[in-house]
Amino acid sequence: MQIQWLGHSAFKVTATGAQVLFDPFLNGNPSFSGNYEELIAGTTHVLLTHAHNDHWGDTVDILRKTGALLISSPEICDYIEMNHEGLRVHAMNMGGTRRFGDIAVSVVRAVHSSSYNTADGQIIYGGTPMGLILKAEGKSVYHMGDTDIFSDMALVEELHHPEIGLVPIGDNFTMGPQIAALAVNRYFDFRTVIPCHYATFPLLEQSAEGFKSLVQKGRVEAIAPMETIEI
């Protein structure tokens, strides 16, 4: 399995039988420097944790160009079905797990909000924000989405045992470095931790070094935007 950080909370996961994009905010993302058309080519699934524009990003364009399947909340899927004919969506909600060919996806809580601002100024309710766990090649990747710490993270660990954590550390809109490190140390047994949702905008934490110094469990891979690691 390969995991590529595309900046902010966007990730590309390449595994047997699937090419998955999490929260594909690419165009307009100051940290994204790849070739957009080349990067999205071959995408099979888009996993969207919530509707905020810095996560929704290029979702509709990617679905249209690749034929990928969107997996997200019922509200987001319904909105896309009603406004973009012919795109493939699959709605899920808290506690659900479903297999899609060579991958499986589980939905867990996130403590945040969810809405989408359209180009004409509408604010669209995006349902409940979620964390998404991708299982492929016998491995599990937990994208926390945007979230604060919450004690039921202990249940996420007990039920799903995720090995790789994609953890927001940017503060202001999500956990900051200290609280994110507490979440990792107290609730999880991650083998690999990849921090995200930082350094994109001035309001956010600009470095992962503080987070990295506080994590006591697992290996922190503070990779650069566009960098790929093999898991």
Describe the secondary-structure layout:
Layout: E1 2-5, E2 11-15, E3 18-22, H1 36-40, E4 45-47, H2 53-56, H3 59-66, E5 69-72, H4 74-83, E6 88-91, E7 97-100, E8 103-109, E9 115-117, E10 123-125, E11 130-136, E12 139-143, H5 153-160, E13 164-168, H6 177-187, E14 192-196, H7 209-214, E15 219-220, E16 228-230
Parallel strand pairs: 3-4, 4-5, 5-6, 12-13, 13-14, 14-15
Antiparallel strand pairs: 1-2, 1-16, 2-3, 7-8, 8-11, 9-10, 11-12
TL;DR?
This is UPF0173 metal-dependent hydrolase VE25_15845. With 231 residues, this protein is α/β, with parallel strands linked by helices.
CATH class identity: Alpha Beta
Number of E-type strands:
16
Q: H/E element string?
A: EEEHEHHEHEEEEEEEHEHEHEE
- Content-based structural category: alpha/beta
CATH topology group? Metallo-beta-lactamase, Chain A
Any idea what the shape is?
globular
Major sheet summary line: 7 strands, mixed
Count of discrete alpha- or pi-helical segments spanning 4 or more residues: 7
> In percent, how helical is the residue content?
10-25%
Please name the defining characteristics of this protein:
7-stranded mixed beta sheet, alpha/beta, globular, 16 strands, 7 helices, Metallo-beta-lactamase, Chain A, 231 residues
